[in-house]
Amino acid sequence: MTTLIETAEHKALRDAVAALGRRYGRDYVARTVAEGRPPTELWAEAGKLGYLGVNLPEEHGGGGGGITELSIVLEELGAAGSPLLMLIVSPAICGTVIARFGTEEQKRAWLPGLADGSRLMAFGITEPDAGSNSHRITTTARKDGADWLLTGRKVFISGVDMADAVLIVGRTEDARTGRLKPCLFIVPTDAPGFQKRAIDMELKAAERQFELVLDDVRLPAEALVGDEDAGLLQLFAGLNPERIMTAAFAIGMGRYALAKAVEYARDRTVWKTPIGAHQAIAHPLAQAHIDLELSRLMMQKAAHLYDAGDDIGAGEAANMAKYAAGEACVKAVDQAVHTLGGNGLTREYGLASLITAARVSRIAPVSREMILNYVSHQTLGLPKSY
User: How far apart are CA 142 and CA 151, in angstroms?
Assistant: First the structure.
């Protein structure tokens, strides 16, 4: 990797985070899953070392970098087998939105804690009937004096049990048009009327998924993040980093699986020859490596555009990066399991559980079909069918 693509500082960050990830590794993550608890030790140490808030402003306790640096952190932790899913949510989505659009009071209240890991924020957009379609969201906020009353449901909200608050995407009525428009609210998880229920997932992960019910949750005026009339702009300021970070998550997972397969292919000997010497084994692994490297390049482009303030360019690149990384991750994991044969399905080698986990990168936070819709309509200018 040349300094034309990544600076010496970025390379040093990669090396440092990779060392932290290796100290915890896949065994640590498997242990937290078995114990039904979040990865608090790794989260705390990553925060202490400044990695969780590397993208947040220095004046509020962060590292002064951007999504470029935060994506490096997540990718390297994932490549070591110990990814932190909430990096996508707490500093990347919520931290970015508050840093860009929050009041000074909101920044002082939240950013230092998000940066050092002492506070954590979840993100709530997906609904049972709307998915992630912000135009069909039914969670609504209405004015009651100076306060807001928030009512609605959310599903597949990560890490609510770990979070101090959830950044909720709701809708308010435009006084001029009467139409509903998206707005973002900081909702404390201990607020009256806020209920959470864990979703029983086949996918076993340290971070659990929740359904939320908001029953007239009363919020002060200062719970609203940003301008009431610019909700869509503020929303996508968080969704583009989410896609970039999901790409980093997928690339890290794919790299971890590929490394395990390469190690096995070097060592496993049949008829006095390592199986990796056979092209039927070697070529698919080489293709997986190429696909992961190409995905990383698009992710780096998306992160660079976002950090440079090009929201439109970043939106296109972030969608492409997330699509490419999801596909590359699924293929790398599948080929890794196949390379190990029966051993790929054992708990000892720790690859079988990645089969389900890898699928997440194709589904969330937006499906590959919706990304293809975006590219066909926005990039290629083709007509819509809906």
Answer: 9
